[in-house]
Structures are given as C-alpha cells and as structure tokens.
Design brief:
The chain is built from no helices and 12 strands. By secondary structure, it is mainly β. It has one domain. Strand 9 and strand 10 form a beta hairpin. The protein starts with a strand and ends with a strand. The chain binds 2-acetamido-2-deoxy-beta-D-glucopyranose and zinc ion. Zinc ion binds next to loops. Keywords: Metal-binding, Zinc.
Amino acid sequence: MVLALALTAELNGVTDLLPNDTEDNPFFYTFKVQCTSCREIHPNWVTEQNEISGSRGEANFVWRCKSCKREQSANIKEKPKAYPHSDAAKKQNILEFDCRGLEFVEFKPDGEWTAKGLESGTKFTGIELHEGDWFDYDEKASEEVSITDMKWEIRRA
Ligand SMILES: *[C@@H]1O[C@H](CO)[C@@H](O)[C@H](O)[C@H]1NC(C)=O
Ligand SMILES: [Zn+2]
C-alpha cells in the first residue's frame, strides 16, 4: 500500500519548506506504526531514514509486531517534495512510502527543516517544527517570516 505524508500549513514570507535530508546529513522521519494484521498500534515512535541513493529495493524500515509477531516493512519511494508558499494553505504530499503489513498512522516533525525567503531567497536552515509554529526574521526582506497552522496527515497516495 502506498501512503503519503501530506502537509497543510501557512507559510508567511517563506517558501519551499523541506526536510534537510541529504546523503551526508540524513533526515529521520518519525512515525507511529499500526499493524495491518492485528491492528495493534505500537506505543513508541519509530524513525525511518531515506536510503534512495543506497541499496535500491531494500526495505529501509523493518519491524516486527510485538503482538502477532509478523514482520513488516516500509520504504520511502523518492526524495521529499518541497512545500510551496501559496495565498491559501493547500494540502500537499511531502513524502510517499510503500508499506507492507503496516501503516504509518501519525507523523512527528522531528529533525531540521529548510526553507527560503519568498522574495529575498534568504536561506533558512535548522528550522524546528516539532513544537509547532516557527517564527524568524528575514534581514534581506526586513520582515518577519513564519510557518503556522501545520496539519500533518497520512493518506493513501
Ligand atoms: C542541512 O544541515 C546541515 C547540518 O546541520 C547543514 O550543514 C546544511 O547546510 C543543511 N542544508 C541545508 C540545505 O539547509
Ligand atoms: Zn500485529
């Protein structure tokens, strides 16, 4: 089953919100996992790394359900997509993954994100979203920038 992580957010003065996910500096995507056999939701958050550039075809997330003991796996399909600025917040898929025997049911935006100034092109790095809204100041544009009203959703791709 192919699932997608979708985001809806208000980007003010910035665009192209993206996980900082490179070969040298991989991003760990944090999810809650549900077993599709016994419907058990694993109580702990699990992390998955994107290994597109490495061993192709190999599952990059393998897990065994504690209740029914079945083995399950998930694969991130491609590089994450940048979330663009728009006047009205639009839902967009950031990431797609192929899940076998499990579903990701909740996402936690841990890790560092990047974005750039809408007009100025100023680079913002080290953006943290796990506590919710993000605020900063764009020196070049002399204006406050922010990312607010984030809604994360996992849906069928
Ligand atoms: C990603 O993070 C690394 C390490 O903090 C940093 O050196 C790099 O500039 C960041 N990349 C982007 C595109 O922001
Ligand atoms: Zn199970």
